[in-house]
Design goal:
Distance between the termini of chain A: 38 Å
Largest sheet of chain B: 5 strands, mixed, barrel
Shape of chain A: globular
CATH topology of chain B: Alpha-Beta Plaits
Largest sheet of chain A: 12 strands, antiparallel, barrel
CATH class of chain B: Alpha Beta
CATH class of chain A: Mainly Beta
Number of strands of chain A: 18
Number of domains of chain B: 1
Structural class of chain A: mainly beta
Helix content of chain A: under 10%
CATH topology of chain A: Porin
Number of strands of chain B: 8
Strand order of the largest sheet of chain A: 1-2-3-5-6-9-10-12-13-16-17-18
Radius of gyration of chain A: 19 Å
CATH architecture of chain B: 2-Layer Sandwich
Oligomer: heterodimer
Radius of gyration of chain B: 17 Å
Shape of chain B: globular
Strand content of chain B: 25-35%
Order of helices and strands of chain B: HEHEEHEEEHHEE
Largest interface: A-B, 38 and 30 residues
Order of helices and strands of chain A: HEEEEEEEEEEEEEEEEEE
Helix content of chain B: 25-40%
Number of helices of chain A: 1
Strand content of chain A: over 45%
Number of helices of chain B: 5
Chain lengths: ~290, ~200
């Protein structure tokens, strides 16, 4: 079940709504006064011989540029968790915890058709999702709750190097999970790297702004320390997962449509945790 | 840099001559009461490398007073501005808009209509209805001299002489070139070409 939590930790790293890759943040600018909306649907599947976990997460992201250097980001996920074991299905669906982030640009170097950017980010996840749901079998295990019940700060950094033909992005986000309901999820460190290459048009026209088709290849990793129940480590929690994530993006001046599949290449998980089979992600973003 | 037939200011081919004739005709037709003080403005932007970024930049530039539309050529990072008829645009406002969009201005190229006059002993182009004067330079070397604090020789003697005559005759000129801001005083206009309008 902790795959669901690792999944949500990874979801936080794909909050950016400007010209970003699909599962990695970007340091590209949001103009002053600009509002961007990003919607994504992510589907996780993890199963073994006796257990089956499916999570659908639909994070809605709004980004507002207060200045050309500072943007405020709000994320509200819709979650649908379903865990089956021994013929019993447990889960919940509804809005999860809201996260608010601030992102500040600390470095900018512009050249003709090229830019280097670095940004720092920090924020807080609020306990807005239900965190004490029960059903016929009793209280849902904490990893299946929609919210953690805790206020969790997070900090990170993003770097982007963009040219007309290609773009690379790197991000690192560390999230400090605090205790709630006698339970504390392990802190997480998400790190991502993305390479985008313009497949179409092969040659840019002299005039105007053409639509781009980018091929995207990403590496998305999440490390999580063990969670604690009543102050004691939970053996089957925490670990490291690394995905390789190919994808496609269709980019216009106003909006972006995108699809990606995340395939695990490393899953060093503690205890007998379910291993992720794949994650599918599809979405769009639009600017106003 | 003489505005003569051997060195036509708007190009030497047939299409260029046709465009120049049409442009000059439109100037004469509309002068002196109603004409755009800037016939064209092109903003070259550094750091622009994706379609989504171009939208934000165009939107910011289109909000600048005097600008009706902004259209980007992504390949060379140039934004072409359409202006309100008979109006002008402030150079500093363009720079601010580009910065607020998250990018950097490389240069701003204009074709400006105005008359020559002297300002503190220097020849400037006075753009009507626009409250802007532009110090005229002829090449980047002289521009650098100005910025380094040396006594500048702004133009060649031939151009200086020609411009002085045009100033004395109160001749309306169309001057094309790149402009840049100065902390104090008039902005600079690096002359690429000029043409007599009236």
């Amino acid at each position: 079940m902790n795959a669901a939590r690792l999944f949500l930790a990874a979801t936080l790293a794909c909050v950016s709504a400007s010209a970003a890759p699909i599962n990695t943040d970007t340091a590209l600018p949001v103009r002053k006064g600009e509002l961007l909306w990003r919607e994504q649907v992510r589907f996780l599947k993890a199963e073994d011989a006796t257990r089956d976990l499916e999570v659908i997460a639909a994070p809605s992201v709004l980004v507002y540029g207060f200045t050309e250097k500072f943007a405020l980001i709000g994320i509200t996920p819709y979650l649908d968790n379903s865990f089956k074991a021994g013929g019993v299905e447990r889960g919940d669906h509804g809005l999860g915890d809201v996260t608010l982030l601030g992102r500040y640009q600390v470095f900018q170097l512009d050249r003709p058709g090229e830019t280097f950017r670095a940004q720092l980010l920090g924020g807080l996840k609020f306990p807005t999702g239900r965190d004490d749901e029960s059903e016929s079998l009793g209280r849902l295990p904490q990893p299946l709750q929609l919210g953690s019940g805790s206020y969790d700060p997070l900090v990170g950094g993003v770097f982007t190097w963009q040219q007309l033909r290609w773009q690379v992005d790197f991000d690192v986000v560390y999230k400090i999970n605090t205790e709630a309901n006698d339970f504390r999820f392990g802190n997480t460190l998400a790190h991502d790297a993305a390479f985008e290459y313009r497949l179409l048009p092969r040659q840019l026209p002299e005039r105007g702004v053409p639509r781009f088709v980018y091929g995207v290849l990403e590496l998305n990793g999440v490390w999580a320390e063990r969670s604690k129940l009543s102050g004691h480590d939970i053996g089957a929690s925490g670990g490291y997962t690394l995905f390789v994530s190919p994808g496609l993006q269709y980019v216009t001046k106003r909006w972006v449509a995108e699809v990606s599949v995340q395939l695990p290449v490393v899953q060093e998980l503690n205890g007998g945790q379910l291993k992720t089979d794949f994650i599918l992600a599809a979405g769009f973003r639009i600017q106003f | 840099m003489q505005p003569n037939s051997r060195n036509p200011p708007f190009g030497g081919d047939a299409l260029g001559r046709l465009l120049a004739a049409a442009l000059l005709a439109s100037f004469v037709w509309s002068a002196p009461n109603a004409f755009a003080e800037f016939k064209s403005v092109k903003v070259k932007v550094d750091g622009l490398a994706c379609p989504l970024c171009a939208y934000g930049l165009e939107k910011k530039l289109a909000q600048v007073k005097g600008v009706t539309e902004a259209k980007t050529d992504l390949k060379n990072g140039t934004v072409h501005l359409s202006l309100v008829e008979g109006g002008g645009v402030n150079v500093r406002s363009l720079d601010k808009a580009v910065r607020e969009a998250g990018f950097s201005v490389k240069d701003v190229a204009v074709t400006a209509l105005g008359w020559l006059k002297e300002e503190n002993g220097l020849l400037v182009l006075s753009v009507r209805d626009n409250s802007q004067n532009f110090l005229l330079f002829e090449d980047s070397a002289r521009e650098e001299e100005v910025h380094s604090g040396k006594q500048p020789k702004l133009r060649t003697e031939a151009t200086e002489s020609a411009l002085r005559k045009l100033m004395e005759a109160h001749t309306l000129l169309a001057v094309t070139g790149k402009i840049h801001d100065h902390a104090k005083g008039s902005a600079g206009l690096l002359i690429e070409k000029y043409a007599v309008v009236k």
